[in-house]
Amino acid sequence: MTKENKARAYWKENIKYVLILLAIWFLVSYGAGILFKDELNTIKIAGFKLGFWFAQQGAMYVFVILIFVYVRLMNKLDKKYGYDA
User: Fold this and answer.
1) Helical H runs in the chain?
2) Mean pLDDT of 36-57
3) Tell me: the pLDDT tens digits for 53-66?
4) What is the domain partition of the chain in residue ranges?
5) Does the predicted model carry a pTM greater than 0.85?
6) Percent of the chain topping pLDDT 70
7) 17 with 25: CB under 8 angstroms?
8) Number of other CB atoms surrounding residue 33 within 10 Å
9) Which of 6, 62, 71, 4 lies closest to 33 in space, CA to CA?
């Protein structure tokens, strides 16, 4: 595999990861906090409605978790293509 093909494959896989993780974040923040809040509000956690919890706290927690997932995926990707230092 040439250097250019390797770089192209690396970025293609990187963009795939980014799009998947952004889709998850969108579903959690917009979907759970806005679109499905009425259905989720029928469930309570520690006295708070689940839709409210996702809108206020859950989306931020999921975003932080997705950052760590992205770091792990990128470390694996770097090793796979030989870009690790």
Assistant:
1) 3-26, 37-40, 50-53, 59-81
2) 85
3) 878 788 889 999 99
4) 3-81
5) no
6) 100
7) no
8) 19
9) 62
Distant-in-sequence, close-in-space partners of 66: CB < 8 Å, separation ≥ 6: 21, 24, 25
Q: At what angle do helices 59-81 and 3-26 cross, to 10 degrees?
A: 170
Neighbours of 41 (CB within 10 A): 15
CA distance 22 to 58: 15
18-36 pLDDT, tens digit each: 999 999 999 888 888 788 8
Which residue from 9, 52, 13, 2 is spatially nearest to 32, judged by alpha carbons? 52
Establish how many alpha carbons lie within 13 A of residue 73's alpha carbon, considering only the half-sphere containing its beta carbon.
Answer: 17
Partners of residue 48 on adjacent β-strands: 45
Tokens of 52: 């409210």
Residue 37 has pLDDT above 90, yes or no: no
- The secondary structure of residue 43, as a DSSP letter, is S
